[in-house]
Each structure stands twice: as structure tokens, then as C-alpha cells.
Amino acid sequence: MKFLCVDCDRQMAFEERAVPGDGTLAAVFTCPSCGRRTAMLANPMETQLVSSLGVKVGGRTVPDANFEGIRTGVTAGREDAFAPAPETPSDTQAGPVRWNVDAVERLGHVPSFVRGMVKKIYNEYAKERGIEEMTPEIMDRARSDLGLEGM
Fold first, then answer.
1. Higher pLDDT, 19 or 101
2. Can you give the residue range of the structural domain that contains 6?
């Protein structure tokens, strides 16, 4: 993804990256011609997805190598890369969240490569609020409360 200055039709240069600590990511870009600045803000789910894919925000300090993406994927690939993460002790301290049949069915519509992350977000939401059973209604409320409606 590249950001272009509308007035100058030039690629904007990376200026600054910020991780406020609330799970979001902010990046600022500046037009080298006119100095116009623009910012990109990614919500926690987008930030986690980008991080899990190994994307580095902020530009490069070394030139691209031929087939770099393919070589790093092959040498660092794991058999369990898309398997759901096992629950950690911190995930179970407040007791596991039960998922009813309708919630499990709805979760099945989420692409498999992000399903574990989505389930973890819903589980954390439920545990923080003392909710013992995940339902589609709770999922809707979580999406609204967490600002994830467009996802």
C-alpha cells in the first residue's frame, strides 16, 4: 500500500510510527513536494492482523532482495502457522467462555487464518465483562463496543 499526495501526485514519504498502547497503530506520511501530511490509524484487530503477517510499517532501510517474501516464508514457515493458539493460563483464570451453537456457527464464517484471533478477541471481551456464554448477540455488542462494525 502506498499513499499519494492528491495535489502533487507524488508518493508520500513515511515520517513517524506510533503505538499508543491501546492496540492501535498510527503512521504519519508527508508529501516531499508540498509538505502535506496524512495519518493512518489501524484499530486493534487490523494491527494484530498486520503484525501476524510480518508486515513492517515505516519503509525499508535496505533494498528488496529477489524473491525475498518467498524465501523468508519458506525458511521460516511452520506447520502450525494457521492453527488456533492454545489457551494460556491467563485466558482461563476467569473460567472459560462457553460458545453456544449459533455463535460457533457464526464464527465458522470467519476466514480460517484469522478465526483464532477473532475468537480470542471475543473471549477477552466476555471475560472482562463476566459473560459466561458467547452468543451472536454478545458478538454484535462486542463488535459495536470495540469499534469493529465494518469488519
1. 101
2. 1-59
Between CA 10 and CA 150 the distance in angstroms is 29
Q: Is the distance from CB of 56 to CB of 48 less than 8 angstroms?
A: no
* Cβ–Cβ < 8 Å for 143, 149: yes
Helices (H) and strands (E) in the chain, counts: 6, 5
Q: Does residue 67 lie within any of the structural domains?
A: no
User: Is the whole model's pTM more than 0.90, yes or no?
Assistant: no
Instruction: Indicate which CATH number applies to the domain containing 48.
Output: 2.20.25
Determine how many CB atoms are found less than 10 A away from the CB of residue 116. Answer: 16
Note the pLDDT tens digit of each residue in 68-109. Answer: 666 555 555 566 666 676 655 544 445 689 999 999 999 998
3-state SS, one letter per residue, for 22-72: CCCEEEEEECCCCCCEEEEEECHHHHHHHHHCCCCCCCCCCCCCCCHHHHH
| Secondary structure of residue 93 in the 3-state scheme | coil
CATH number, domain with residue 142: 1.10.8.550
Pairing of β 98-99 and β 25-30: unpaired
- Backbone phi, then psi, for 144, in 5-degree steps? -70, -50
